[in-house]
Known about the structure:
The complex is a heterodimer of chains A (203) and B (348). Chain A contains 6 helices and 5 strands, in the order ααβαββαββαα. Chain A has helices at 17-21, 23-36, 78-82, 124-128, 154-157, 175-182, and strands spanning 61-63, 88-94, 107-115, 134-136, 151-152. Chain B is mainly alpha-helical and 348 residues long. Chain B is globular. The chains are: A alpha+beta (203), B mainly alpha (348). At the A-B interface, α2 of A face α1 of B.
Amino acid sequence: MQLTNRSKVVVKKEMTFIERMYLPAIFSGMFITFKHLFKKSATIKYPEQTREFSKIYRGQHVLKRDEKGAERCTACGLCAVACPAEAITMTAAERKPGEEALYREEKYAATYEINMLRCIFCGDCEEACPKEAIFLTDRKVDSFYTRKEFIYGKSILVEGLESDKRVDVSVRETKAVEEFKKQKEFAHNETYDKNKKKTVAGH
Amino acid sequence: MTLDFLIYKIILVLIVFSITLLVATYSTYAERKIAAFLQDRIGPDRAGPFGILQPLADAVKMFMKEEIIPNVSNKALFVLGPGICMLTACMTGVIIPWGKSINIGGTDYPLQIADVNIGILYLFGVLSLGVYGIMIGGWASNNKYSLLGAIRASSQMISYEVAMGISIIALVMTTGTLSTGEIAAQQHGWHWNVLIQPLGCLIFIICAFAETNRAPFDLPECETELVGGYHTEYSSMKLGLFLFAEYINMFISSAVIATFYFGGYNMPLIGRWVHDPNVLAILGFVFLFMKIVGFIFFFMWVRWTLPRFRYDQLMNLGWKILIPLSILNLVLTGAWMMRHEIINYFVK
């Protein structure tokens, strides 16, 4: 049965005199290496040059805040369920009155940890997230000396409050994200009108 | 007069010695660069522009490393090994004619340290001594890998010296002299010995690769089988001397190949445009150097192309192919030189 056209029938024939001299083979080999002398080198001089990433490169995660600066994550746990490497753990907590500016909904993640050594950067967590809270960015995970340091907590994962510390994830925002953004219902608590009929969110 | 002579010889020795060291130093850099270019890489480029100071950094590293002498080793011999290697490597440079003589104030100053009339014999004698450094170092290390490397080195040296010697005998027959200076002088214009002795030249080059322990004949130090071969137990500058001696050997081998077979300091047609003998002598030195650099590149090019021989293949090539071929070369050369007598014998 022939699967591909690449298979070669092995013939164990005696080498001819020319072949046994090996000189033609040596010269052809030398010619091949000589050609490489003029080829462009594949080296990227790292600290000065960096490899160009793909537009939708999946690197270190970010936990997004909404426009007003409240954390979007509600600790639903769907990302942890979706994670094939079981890298994500979290504990949920209830929002106290007065914390409306910090957390967008009544439930939030008190701790949220991603083990960067387990993570395979597949992007299933951002796919699973119903609140568009977690995104993968084009940042690289740093290197550390101990395993413990690779467990990223909220202090690293949540993006900064100030506008210049926000992480731009627009390249990774799909149509579903844009749809989600249109829902003014969750934009912030003060715009939430109880009398208005609830629109069913996209999920 | 004799004091003049002495001073001139000392100056010449110092110049040749420093050039040898300089070329060997930068051969390490060239080796890494050429290896990189042949493999589509860049090579060392951090120390200085284009990494030009890399050999200095390497030397500093070598000197700074901890010096380890194994307890079980024979300490005197252990230290002696790299010394002999280095000494014999530097000794061969004296018989290379680096150029024609320079005429200053009516006196001729030949650019050759010692034009002994048995130059080739001297060369072979010193070359054979070179393996003692490896043997003593490998044996004194009291390590099985070192010993295996040393044994390989000596057996390889013995096997390939025979073929090398016989191919040189054919050269000596055609040139009629054992003096390297005369061999170089005879090759003016297009009378390069490679055109007269192509087979002998090929055998000589192959044997030169084996004698310098360069790939594909680097069995004495093959990392994959013997860790580091004879220099497994060495560290610091003693290791550096072993490695450095290899590069000096490569430089000297290139010079010898260029002198014996590729015209030495001669360049065809140059006599038509340049007539001043002093300028010609300096140009000759430049030409010889270009040839040497070319051969050093060839050494490195081969190293990064061909894989290492297996031990039995090495012995087969040496004893069953190169020695019969060199004897054939010898017989053919003799027959060619005696062609008139042979024809006369049959025609009469």
